[in-house]
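Bumping my old thread because nobody answered last time. Still need a sequence for this structure:
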């Protein structure tokens, strides 16, 4: 009959998929687009302002590897 969820393999597969989804959720982050590339995200004053005023931590600049790590106007936090 082959209905959905009728075999043990299907249940184990669902658990595996749920685990992958949970791992992805834990790695979730925010992106901020349109940020001028002249902003130094490693500047201590910038870091303090972002943490104090916006509770944003661990900010990274996104780069384009195919263009020799050219900085893009996108931040990840």
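Sorry it took so long. Here it is:
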């Amino acid at each position: 009959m082959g209905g959905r969820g009728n075999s043990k393999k299907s249940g184990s597969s669902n658990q595996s998929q749920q685990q992958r989804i949970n791992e992805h959720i834990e790695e979730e982050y925010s992106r901020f687009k349109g940020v001028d590339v002249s902003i130094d995200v490693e500047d201590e004053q910038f870091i303090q302002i972002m943490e104090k005023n916006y509770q944003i931590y661990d900010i990274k600049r996104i780069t384009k590897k195919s263009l020799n790590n050219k900085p893009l106007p996108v931040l990840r936090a």
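Residues 8-76 form one domain. Let me know if any region looks off to you.
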